[in-house]
Amino acid sequence: MARGFAPGQSATLWVYDIEADAAREVLSSDRLLFEAPNWTPDGAALVVNGDGRLFWVPASATPTSAVLTEIDLGGIPEINNDHVLSPDGDTVYVSAQDGHLYAVPLDGSGPRQVSHDRGDFHHYLHGVSRDGSTLAYIGLSWEGDQRVTNVYLLPLDGGDEVQLTDDGFQDDGAEFGPGPDGAEWVYFNSERAGGAAGHAQLFRMRPDGTSVTQLTDDERVNWFPHPSPDGRHLAYVSYPPGTEGHPENIADVRIRLTTPAGGTGRDLVTVFGGQGAMNVGSWAPDSSAFAYVTYSDV
């Protein structure tokens, strides 16, 4: 079931310019609750989900000119807010409400399921490798009444998925990106540092699961690390201390910026919202800006 507005609520899409250290409004709506912007690899458009569907809007749009155009997903089940574009811009990969991942060619040639059938197991997509060969996702399963999440990689050539974490702690937000050494790493958030819900911090590891490195260590609850393509910045969503999960409609949610080397980030903006603000990679391809969504108070 797609998420909907609380009475009187609206959503606003923003672009934050790193050099100007300021945000500009792109689009606002009280009809469609949109979430989780991606930037197309050519820098021309932003992609958001809403009402189980996917849309794009020109990145240069203003509130008076912006129009959302629906992307044809070819009849797959409703999607959630976990979606990424291939590095060549020809395909969008999405997580659907049936628990599977789909590749949707933007030429209209028809979608295909890329995740494997694993019974009562859900895939939540967050990243694609720089060469376009591998997806990073969170696998959700159950052990009795215990919800279990881990980081997985899925080769798009049909090979077996690779599980990178298996430690009993809740993990999320797995995303590829360059590290301080220029090599490709997998960034994620995890509760392993505090050992309990409401203590998520940011980490990165090699794509083989080694060299796990903690990047933040503060009193706030930090989610969804998004490394910039040039390897200089790491944007993320920071919740108030003690927040469990990544809920919607929370006050004092901060968009922060640090570096792939880690450290406490500086606050860029404080927003009302959380869920849907910046769940997936939203950097411009030239690393000059990133996009996020805010929601009006309720």
Automatic annotation (TrEMBL):
The record's annotation in InterPro entries points to: 6-blade_b-propeller_TolB-like, WD40
One Pfam family named in its UniProt record: PD40
What the record says about family reads:
Belongs to the TolB family.
Write the protein's name: PD40 domain-containing protein
Cite the source lineage: Bacteria, Bacillati, Actinomycetota, Actinomycetes, Micrococcales
